[in-house]
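Hey, I'm writing a tutorial for new members on how sequence and structure tokens pair up, and I'd like a real worked example in the thread rather than a made-up one. If someone can provide the structure for the chain below, I'll link this post from the tutorial.
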Amino acid sequence: MDWQISEDTVPSAPVTEADARSMAGRPPATGAWRDGDPVGDRSFAAFGAMRTEGGALLPGFRLAYECWGELNAARDNAVLILHALTGDSHVRGPAGPGHPTAGWWDALVGPGLAIDTDRWFVIAPNVLGGCQGSTGPASIHPDGEAWGSRFPYLTIRDQVAAQVRLADALGIDRWAAVVGGSMGGMHALEWAVGTPERVERLAILSSPPINTADQIALNSVQLEAIEIDPRFAGGEYYDAAPGEGPHRGLALARRMALLNYRSPTELNQRFQRSWQSGVSPLGHGGRFAVESYLDFHGNKFTRRFDANTYIRLVEAMDSHDVGRDRGGVEEALAGVTARTLVLGSDSDRLFPVDGQHRIARSVPNTLDGAESVVLHSDFGHDGFLIETAAVAHHLGRLFAA
């Protein structure tokens, strides 16, 4: 659950006047990619009906994905990269038609990099329920209207079941590695527990074995912020004109989330008590710089994401409990056979490192025994996206193993 695009994962900085002007137009009702938009670097795979854990029936679905490198003749060099809550399949590559932002892991995936696309065939799907090409609430229902609020509740396991079908369609029986951070780490963990024979290496970055009560509570207020926006209209807003969609509720949810992704140290050092302009915020109508920073990024987010999608993906994260119906967390993790890297950040207040240590203690074959790698970072949860040199080093250890 993080920023997950390159333009947002830079260290926090005050908002400039040019930044503010870039958000002057009315936001669309949804920032989702929709059929008819430029395809960009996406490929698509379509599948038949799927029954969710909750018993709902998807009559068919599509996954959007991107890939880099070449699959070898033995088909044993494939690497699966799984994105976080607000990410997508665009792991590397420039912004352009179909891709409003540049790749979110350009510094780590590519020729000669930590995940070397001269050696590995890398695949990154947009998650089922997402809004960047895969079937989700903004997609068209068989009746010709948007799914909207009718889109079913999904679990992390449902989303991995969809990814398994993609792997089967691509003829990949075993992944050389499955790599995921935050929500993507939940998916990666499910891959390794549910289908251990299909995962040779595993990287779990800033992700927990379960979503705790504290994390569910933090998520609940974000969802409420969206749902109480009158323009959310019960999830049926796709025909709304620009500026008439639920952008205020979605932007507020994003502002709440950002406070969990970064650390107090970073925000205090970057902004201190500075003002956004020469107008005092002490009773004279001005604003503190940190307030404008949150506003800007909340408003920017509404131009590339979808309110219903945010709800469904956060609900999926809340479902995450790798030990559910498996005898508990420790028993479930004991069945992982992959060579495993577990990594967290010491300033992560969303998914604190005790969760990563719990994973490391229970997985039999980790790089570092019973302790997670701990990044010393001021950047909180987003450390695994910003501290690229350190993350590259540890991924290099995994891929050399």
